[in-house]
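Per your request, structure below.
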């Protein structure tokens, strides 16, 4: 009888462990999307207009710059690196777009090309120091962040003008919609789809994961580490430059946006981590980052919808992020 009782306990314990394991597996897959739904319903219960189509359209437009930075940051972090300079690049490219547009007499093509070029210059500088000279990426990108911000202030100090800019292209990505969806969000969606395809179906994606998992092994199997690290940092800066152009389209005025750019950088890092990308490299998904970006957008918008005191918004945002990261760690602690 004792043996039979013990067997029943073992069976019930085994079933409970199996059920618990299956629950954990489900939470690993839907944890972040579930947080988006729960958070949205919570804010909706306090303020019904939060989930109205107009507000959702506003959120989808607001998250575009952060989303573009986060997409590039995902590739860099998975490869085992980090790019802190993207916040400064987005500010520098935004100012470049507006200043060149104003000086050139409204040449939008020249303005966009100049913004992309300046962003790629920062990316090339980063990649040269990191990939070629083997300098620490954290220190290099922290330094270029400071340099880029300095250039922003220098340019604005030299120009000493306020450019109010207007052009069909700017209005197109500055909030214009098709079927209620902002064109800027469609651009972000296209970028993430392209990023998903690159990450999952090309050599660049495969090698990105290999670099982050074990750089020594990647080198031993013949992967050109320098080449692919250069590509990744250029890609990250390019997307940040694109984000700066979108900001200029939205604001229709040239200003440094230094504080806002740094906030966007921090939010992009949070979105990437919440989306499941490891700071140690080798682990992450593009779709996870996309959901993380949406969650960050919902959090930011909810602060305004709920009329949170501006002085307390950073406290509220930080508290929510800590809770989310704690939730994420609890889910993945059984891995």
């Amino acid at each position: 009888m004792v043996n039979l009782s013990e067997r029943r306990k073992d069976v019930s314990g085994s079933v409970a462990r199996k059920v618990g394991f299956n629950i954990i597996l489900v939470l690993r897959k839907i944890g972040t999307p579930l947080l988006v739904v729960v958070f949205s319903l919570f804010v909706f219960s306090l303020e019904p207009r939060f989930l109205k189509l107009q507000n959702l359209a506003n959120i989808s437009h607001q998250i575009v710059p952060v989303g573009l930075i986060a997409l590039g940051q995902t590739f860099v972090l998975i490869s085992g690196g980090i790019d802190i300079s993207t916040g400064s690049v987005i500010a520098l490219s935004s100012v470049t777009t507006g200043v060149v547009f104003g000086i050139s007499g409204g040449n939008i093509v020249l303005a966009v090309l100049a913004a992309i070029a300046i962003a790629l210059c920062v990316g090339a500088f980063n990649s040269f120091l990191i990939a070629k000279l083997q300098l620490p990426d954290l220190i290099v990108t922290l330094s270029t962040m400071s340099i880029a911000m300095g250039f922003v202030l220098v340019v604005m100090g030299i120009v000493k003008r306020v450019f109010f800019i207007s052009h069909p292209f700017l209005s197109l990505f500055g909030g214009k919609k098709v079927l209620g969806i902002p064109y800027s969000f469609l651009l972000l969606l296209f970028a993430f789809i392209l990023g998903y395809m690159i990450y999952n179906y090309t050599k660049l994606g495969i090698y990105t994961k290999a670099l982050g998992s074990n750089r020594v092994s990647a080198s031993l199997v013949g992967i050109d580490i320098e080449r692919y690290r250069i590509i990744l940092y250029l890609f990250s800066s390019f997307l940040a430059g694109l984000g700066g152009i979108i900001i200029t389209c939205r604001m229709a005025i040239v200003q440094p946006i230094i504080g806002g750019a740094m906030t966007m950088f921090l939010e992009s890092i949070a979105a990437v981590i919440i989306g499941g990308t490891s700071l140690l490299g080798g682990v992450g998904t593009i779709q996870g980052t996309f959901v993380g970006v949406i969650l960050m957008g919902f959090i930011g918008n909810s602060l305004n919808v709920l009329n949170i005191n501006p002085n307390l918004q950073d406290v509220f945002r930080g508290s929510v992020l800590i809770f989310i990261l704690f939730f994420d760690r609890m889910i993945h602690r059984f891995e």
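The chain has one domain: 34-332.

Regards,
D.
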